[in-house]
Design a protein that fits this description.
globular, 58% helix, alpha+beta, 15% strand
Length: 188
């Protein structure tokens, strides 16, 4: 598949998920993108599942059933695209489709999407602080996609438009560990 054809295919899938601006609200669009990222993450974290889903010996319905069993009540648009991805053996495009979907949302709704990862859910005050700070900097609306990850131990990780701010406890411990192993006196 040529790069132009690949990009066109990714664009078609992302637009199919996002749907028509008149029928898809910003909240729905953000939820679709969050679900797509969760699906992609689940598939990426389980090599056995990914192997099963790429097994062309299984029917399209069997492979799609295995994927959708991870998530109940996926929106019809996502199920339809998943069906096509399995039918056409294009499941590896899922990450790029998720990225394109986020870009389309930002363009269509004039927002920037910030992925925020924490150990516990954000409270309304922190959400508002993040939105106000970045809305002022970027001159557009801000939407937050929240992710919970106990592996970061504490703190926060924010990703937006290719930038990553990692103020997690796990990153700080990793940095301290690097200093301790580099310096023969333990960083003192």
């Amino acid at each position: 598949m040529t790069i132009d054809r690949r990009n066109a295919t990714i664009d078609v899938y992302a637009n199919a998920i996002l749907g028509d601006a008149a029928t898809t609200s910003l909240d729905q669009a953000i939820e679709y993108s969050r679900l797509l990222l969760l699906l992609e993450e689940a598939l990426g974290s389980s090599p056995d599942l990914r192997t099963r889903l790429n097994d062309v010996g299984l029917s399209t319905a069997e492979r799609q059933g295995a994927a959708t069993s991870l998530f109940t009540n996926l929106p019809a648009a996502i199920n339809a695209v998943l069906g096509l991805l399995f039918e056409r053996d294009e499941l590896p495009l899922l990450t790029e489709i998720a990225d394109r979907l986020s870009s389309l949302i930002e363009e269509r709704y004039d927002v920037a999407i910030i992925d925020v990862t924490t150990v516990v859910p954000l409270d309304d005050g922190i959400r508002q602080t993040i939105k106000q700070k970045y809305a002022a900097q970027l001159g557009c609306g801000i939407e937050i996609r929240e992710h919970l990850d106990p592996n970061i131990m504490g703190g926060i990780i924010m990703q937006m438009r290719g930038r990553r701010i990692d103020a997690s406890l796990s990153a700080q411990l990793s940095s301290a560990r690097a200093v301790m192993t580099r310096d023969p006196f333990g960083g003192v």
